[in-house]
Amino acid sequence: MRFVVHALGTVESTQSEVQRLAAAGAPEGIVVTAHHQQAGRGRRGHRWWDAPGESLLVSILLRPTRPLATVPELALVGGLAVAEALATADVAAHIRWPNDVLVGGVKVCGILAEAASDGRGEMSARAHHVILGIGINLNQTGFPASLGGTATSLRLATGRVQDAGPLLGVVLARLEQRYEEWLAGGFVAMRADWLAHALLPGQMVRLPDGSLGVGEDVRDDGVLLARAGDGRLVAVVSGGVVEEVTAHAAGH
Predict the structure, then answer these.
(1) Other residues' Cβ atoms within 10 Å of the Cβ of residue 9
(2) Burial of 45 (0-12, 13-18, 19+ CB in 10 A)
(3) What is the pLDDT of residue 27?
(4) Disulfide-capable partner of 136 in 106, 109, 111, 252 (CB 3.0 to 4.6 Å)?
């Protein structure tokens, strides 16, 4: 895959910019980065905060030839790519299912996978395109009080000023490799590597019935398996991370 990077200034969101390009027929591999987002968004309608010029804000256009139902796995693929990219800079990162990357137990990165289908019936629908958003806190030295100590930056974690350019190159390289593996074999092809970077077992999650559970494993399709208080093993399809807040640092 050939990446073509469009570096922009202040935008509504990098996701929206890539969506416009996708609608106009842009090829797979288009990448949009931004200095600042005025309305960055995250999962489930959350708005994500970033400090101008202090984050790596990037969205990538993908056109996978896979069923639409498998698209949520790309958030896990993206998380693994980021964790591996940070490891090349001697930063130990862990993945919190489904879409956060943590350093020192605090969130430094968020992932968002948004898809459009080909319009066919639900059972046969395939992804027309996917926009994979990655937001990494680079050089923030402080965060809004609303984040309540739930966010950090690579600068805070390492004591070093970070350069977005080299990190973007490594993230894209790791993503390309993992994406090709996913196209060929699905999430199961990298499940063991993902688990090696994950906060499993032991991650606290909100179960579908509203109670708390403890994450134990992920299935081959990326669905979380969590142990309920009564001992049941429950499949959690969408994120119910207990630590989630309404405003997030670094994201789309």
Answers:
(1) 9
(2) exposed
(3) 96
(4) 109
Neighbouring residues of 78: CB distance < 8 A, sequence distance ≥ 6: 99, 111, 113, 132, 134, 175
Beta bridge partners of 161: none
Nearest to 164 by CA among 49, 48, 62, 31: 31
For the chain, how big is the Rg over CA atoms in Å? 17
Q: Residue 218 corresponds to which tokens in the numbers above?
A: 């992920």
For residue range 2-28, what is the model confidence (pLDDT) as tens digits? Answer: 999 999 999 999 999 999 999 999 999
- The pairing of strands 247-249 and 47-49 is parallel
User: What tokens does 22 get?
Assistant: 């996708």
Cα angle 199-187-168, degrees, rounded to a multiple of 5: 75
Domains belonging to the chain, first-starting first, are 4-200 (3.30.930.10)
How many angstroms separate the CA atoms of 115 and 23, rounded?
12
Q: Please report, to the nearest 10 degrees, the dihedral formed by the alpha carbons of residues 156, 114, 1, 108 taken in order.
A: 10
Sign of CA dihedral 55, 56, 61, 64: negative
Pairing of strands 55-62, 47-49: unpaired
Q: Output the 3-class SS for 74-92.
A: HHHHHHHHHHHHHHCCCCC
pLDDT tens-digit profile of 79-131?
Answer: 999 999 999 989 999 999 999 999 999 999 999 999 987 665 554 578 889 99
